[in-house]
Amino acid sequence: MTLPLREELRGIEPYGAPQLDVPVALNVNENPYPPSEAVVAEVAAAVADATRTLNRYPDRELTELRRDLAGYLGHGVTPEQVWAANGSNEVMLQILQAFGGPGRTAVSFAPTYSMYPEYARDAMTGWVVGHREADFSLDIDHALGVIKEHEPTVVLLPSPNNPTGTALPLEVVAAVCAATPGVVVIDEAYGEFRRAGTPSALELLPTAPNLVVSRTMSKAFALAGARLGYLAASPEICDALRVVRLPYHLSAVTQAVARVALRHADELLARVDDLRAERDRTVDWLREQGHTVADSDANYVLFGRFADLHAVWQGLLDRGVLIRETGPDGWLRVSIGTAEEMAAFRQALREVLR
């Protein structure tokens, strides 16, 4: 039987980084520090409470969670300006479902997050990709030219950029918002890791009605397994996403776990400074070894360049260290782990390149 699969999906492999059992996994930008036993106990109690009412549907408006997320974000954000879903992946897909569609276009600038064109494809939205500069910054004249030519209803800009770690200046974000006829999504999935003095696009929300700032609890909050992404935007944008969301899309268990994590934000984010420092040490060490390294405001580092990057990747894997083949040709990306994991990475890379 030949399945009536959409033609553009034929032969496509599902997205996903390798999931391998290795001593040192540094390929998917996770926080290497698990929640404390105190947080584990409170999560377990909250899940138990939620379980007592699992015969009922969850709060489909996420009322208490949105209030807690607004409190965490600050910047004057109100609960009506917050929306949440199963990971920032679902947040992005809902944005494309609401503001994309047949005859419409989404824009980003490469290299960028490899899932963006898949969101556009799944929402039957045209995809246009401009380019970044050699240092992975975004040239504003080029960006505005692409926007003027294609008039996108969605612009997707990660800051820090994945896979390069490059943050966007607020003046670039403001100019893109002013020039875009649709919504502009600044994806701050790694925003908590940005260096001191690097601002958040949340500062522009009061003056940019088409701005969406997306975040996740998967990275800095060490909650990748819970699948909770969220955004801040105007109430009108949030209401539009409520139209396309699936009924009761965020389980009572997920909402309960996320609220516990937010109550313990200070503790869960306490290791962010350690990861920032380890990132900066990694950047310095790689440069000392003669590698080209992108400046990073995230919890990963893009480095190169290698004539045979797969051989380097495989050599590291053979030594028990898994990093990521992603991004521009000749570059590899390493997530920042514990001090011990990064020492293992350095030793393995020395041996591979000896």
Describe the structure.
The chain has 354 residues and is an alpha/beta fold. The protein is built from 12 helices and 12 strands. The chain has helices spanning 37-51, 63-73, 87-99, 116-122, 140-150, 170-179, 235-244, 252-263, 265-268, 272-288, 309-318, 339-353; strands at 24-25, 82-85, 105-110, 126-131, 154-158, 183-187, 211-216, 229-232, 292-293, 300-304, 321-322, 331-335. It has a 7-stranded mixed beta sheet with strand order 2-8-7-6-5-3-4, sandwiched between helices. Strand 3 (105-110), helix 4 (116-122) and strand 4 (126-131) form a beta-alpha-beta unit. The longest helix has 17 residues, at 272-288.
Number of strands: 12
Q: Approximately what portion of the residues adopt beta-strand conformation?
A: 5-15%
What is the spatial order of strands in the main beta sheet?
A: 2-8-7-6-5-3-4
Order of helices and strands: EHHEHEHEHEHEEEHHHHEEHEEH
Fraction of helical residues: 25-40%
Unreliable residue stretches? none
Major sheet details: 7 strands, mixed
Structural category:
alpha/beta
Q: Supply Rg.
A: 20 Å
Q: What's the helix count?
A: 12
| Mean pLDDT level | 96
The coarse overall form would be: globular
List keywords for this structure.
3-stranded antiparallel sheet; alpha/beta; 354 residues
How would you concisely characterize the structure shown here?
The chain has 354 residues and is α/β, with parallel strands linked by helices. It has helices at 37-51, 63-73, 87-99, 116-122, 140-150, 170-179, 235-244, 252-263, 265-268, 272-288, 309-318, 339-353; strands spanning 24-25, 82-85, 105-110, 126-131, 154-158, 183-187, 211-216, 229-232, 292-293, 300-304, 321-322, 331-335. Strand 3 (105-110), helix 4 (116-122) and strand 4 form a beta-alpha-beta unit.
